[in-house]
Design brief:
Distance between the termini: 42 Å
Largest sheet: 2 strands, parallel
Number of strands: 2
Helix content: over 70%
Number of domains: 1
Shape: globular
Order of helices and strands: HHEHHHEHHHHHH
Length: 267
């Protein structure tokens, strides 16, 4: 796979800087690796389709609803969609690492160990968000189906139903990854802990707005179930960023400790 190789002349300098071409090559390589991993993950995702189908349809069937395959190709399309969604979940360690390695390039050996620790946190967070979505899914379906009038029946198109479910589950998972990327921005010096804390009000409001959009139920409880963990994770990310900033301050010369990070890096 020669097209994945970085040209010999395109080497990072000692400070980890890269040219635009090197960044594009790095991005291409990361995307290809993540895409290949997801493509391989489709195989077990395809095999797990039947149990996942039964699990996801159960909330609707408990309310007397049914999924409907209106088109000839709908069963295959839904099967492929579910397999791809499961592949994204199963290969989370691979593509999370690719995203992290692209955002935070040129790591030292110690920083790589720290990065592996962050990945060890990021993957459970993503899976935890997906699990939380599965836990709240019956409540969401129950509330939405309850608006059906007594004279109506819930016969929902399978593609529309599973598109809603996959977006719902993956949105929870990606929401729980946000603190990891906040810490990544801190590691590369873009987002100091003090800046993160100064925007806590907007972060809390944003978390609740996102939770309200991703939990399409009129009751506030499902919104709080998503928003409160997101707020807690935001403050957890701030705590990690504060510790990292303190470590960097101890390593800096004493005469630069009162200088902001972005200015100290140019001294």
């Amino acid at each position: 796979m020669a097209f994945l190789r970085r040209p010999r002349q395109a080497r990072r300098d000692p400070e980890g800087r890269m040219s635009l071409i090197e960044h594009l090559i790095e991005l291409r390589n990361r995307v290809v690796v993540a895409a290949v991993a997801i493509a391989v993950g489709v195989i077990p995702g395809w095999m797990l389709y039947e149990p996942m189908f039964a699990l996801l349809v159960r909330p609707l069937k408990d309310r007397g609803g049914h999924v409907n395959y209106a088109g000839l190709t709908d069963p295959f399309a839904v099967h492929l969609q579910m397999a791809l969604s499961l592949a994204i979940i199963l290969t989370a360690p691979v593509w999370v690492w690719q995203i992290w390695a692209f955002i935070v390039p040129g790591l030292t050996r110690r920083e790589k160990r720290t990065a592996m620790a962050f990945i060890g946190v990021a993957v459970p967070l993503f899976l935890g968000g997906c699990a939380l979505a599965l836990w709240t899914l019956p409540m969401a379906v129950d509330v939405l189906v309850s608006f059906t009038p007594a004279a109506g029946d819930n016969i929902i198109g399978a593609p529309e139903y599973f598109t809603f479910l996959t977006r719902y589950i993956l949105a929870f998972g990606f929401a729980f990854l946000m603190p990891v990327f906040l810490v990544a921005l801190n590691v590369i010096g873009i987002l100091p802990a003090r800046v993160m804390l100064s925007g806590w009000r907007w972060a809390v409001i944003g978390n609740f707005v996102f939770a309200a959009m991703m939990t399409p139920t009129p009751d506030p409880w499902t919104m709080f179930i998503l928003a409160l963990p997101m707020c807690a994770l935001f403050y957890g990310a701030y705590g990690v960023a504060w510790l990292l900033d303190r470590r960097r301050d101890r390593r800096r010369p004493s005469w630069t400790r009162d200088v902001p990070d972005d200015q100290a890096s140019s001294l």
